[in-house]
Write a structure and sequence with these properties.
heterodimer; A: about 110 residues; 6-stranded mixed sheet; 4-stranded antiparallel sheet; B: about 110 residues; mainly beta; about 0% helix
Chain lengths: ~110, ~110
Amino acid sequence: GESVGLHLPTLSVQEGDNSIINCAYSNSASDYFIWYKQESGKGPQFIIDIRSNMDKRQGQRVTVLLNKTVKHLSLQIAATQPGDSAVYFCAETVSGYSTLTFGKGTMLLVSP
Amino acid sequence: DSGVTQTPKHLITATGQRVTLRCSPRSGDLSVYWYQQSLDQGLQFLIQYYNGEERAKGNILERFSAQQFPDLHSELNLSSLELGDSALYFCASSVGTAVDTQYFGPGTRLTVL
C-alpha cells in the first residue's frame, strides 16, 4: 500500500488490547473535532466527531475524549483488532467554517 | 466505499506538464473539497467548492486551479508541475457549506518525474 508518512508516531498493540491515540490541537477557537482513519491506499474515513460542548462521545468500540483546557483530544479503541491497523488523524475546525485542519497522524499497528 | 469517485488512480508525468484530476461527489452532496497529502506536509486543504462556486481557499498554489461543474463533479488542474507536487490528491464531499462529515475519495497518486 501507499505510505502516508515516514515519520509518524507509531502505536503498536496486541489484538484485544485497548488503544489510545492522542492529538494536540492548535486553535483554541476550534469547537468541532473529527477523527479519521486512513488505511493504506485509501482515503481518510470518518470515525467519530465531537463538539466542544461535550467532553466525551462514544461510538461503536470507539470513544473520543476532549480536554479543552489543554487543547487535547484522544481516541480510544476498545478490543483493538488487526483491521484497526491504519493511520489515525484528528481534525479541527471552527463551526461555520468549512476548512478542516488535520494533525500529522498516528500509525496504529495491531499484532494478532 | 465512500461514494466519492476520483480518476485517475495513478498519474505519472514530467516537470513542466499540466494534469487534470477529476472528482465526482456523493449523490446529494453539494460541497467538494480538494486536499493534498505529502510525506512532509501531511493532509493539507487546498480549496472548496459549493454548488459551483468557490467557497474557501487553503494552501493552494497559483499554479493550481479548480472548478465545479453544473453536474457537481469537480476538476483540479495542476500546471507547470514540479517534483515537489508529487503527492496524493484527495477529493472529499459533504452536504452543506460549513463543515459536516466529509467523505473522502480514494485519491489520485501524482508522480512528477
